[in-house]
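Batch manifest line 354
LIGAND: iron/sulfur cluster
JOB: complex structure
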Amino acid sequence: MTRRKFIKTCIAATGLIALGGRSSLIWAGGIFDRSGNESRLRNGYNQGLVYRPRYLDLEASGELERRERALWAKMERCSLCPRMCGVNRMAGEMAVCSSDNTLRVASSEIAFRAERVIVGSRGVGAIFMSNCNLLCVFCQNWQIAHRGDGRQTTHAELAGTMLNLQQRGAHKVYIVTSTHVVPHIVSALRLAIRRGLNIPLVFDTGSYETLEVMRLLDGIVDIYIADFKFMDCEIAAPFLSGARGYARYAAAAIKEMHRQVGTLNVIDGADSTPIANRGLLIRHLVLPENLAGTDRFVRWVVDELGADTDVSIMAQFRPAFFASRHPPLHRRITQSEFDQANRWARDAGLRNFH
Ligand code: SF4
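JOB STATUS: finished
ARTIFACT:
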């Protein structure tokens, strides 16, 4: 990457909104602007301009109701994420994610500041959940993730929000940080389906997920946008509020996401803008002194998922929240660190990294 492009990237990052795994922001600029022709046949899911989310079939068959019940059961001794806190959230108990059996939503909006193939020409209907199960010390959204800013919301209200975003033209419902509240989301989704929801569902996750929950989401989620933050469990834990085994859980979860939805499927939208309706996009934030293990990350992607996997390599780390107390996270990355990350990606053979 040239110095000019790097500077442009960093300037763009300052105008971003926090869509995404809390600690990682998304490019303001479009970065997946590939031709529709190239991607048209990529994983065989392209159904032309009318895409039918699979959650509609799951609901029609009664399977979505079964999944909803299975997810709610996990709240009784909470095992919704690898922290396995075991508290009875249905009885009002809380643990690491500061969430009981109620739902808090921080905000919702039509958002354009994500990858261009995700937002298309009309934007995504982004819904930000309050609280988080990962709690990065460098969180750029700490008021929502750590402090829990937001408003208590019913399932009917959340369903109404999804429908409102669809009505306003959003290409997708885009849930930011769903892990700790996923039963609520499925309950609201079922209500919204009955009232006409029919656009793809996106989960944007920090990837600290269990395989069991991921398998329950098979057929519900159309697009996964998954952070892979660290490649080493021991290095990761102090920066993720003690999350044990982060790299191991994230690797398994992302492989399962890939099994479910494949690489990004991009079609020509109604106005010829390329738009993804299904698939996996992995985001990786480059950290100072290669703390994230970017060289290992890109090799892992190629070896485990294939060179065509869609990857965002992001430069916009800044020392937010408590990062300044955790060197080397007290500084931004340098241009040469970002250039090196891109060289690693190229040398590993990744074809769709941006
Ligand atoms: S979702 Fe929350 S309570 Fe449940 S295991 Fe994870 S951090 Fe613990």
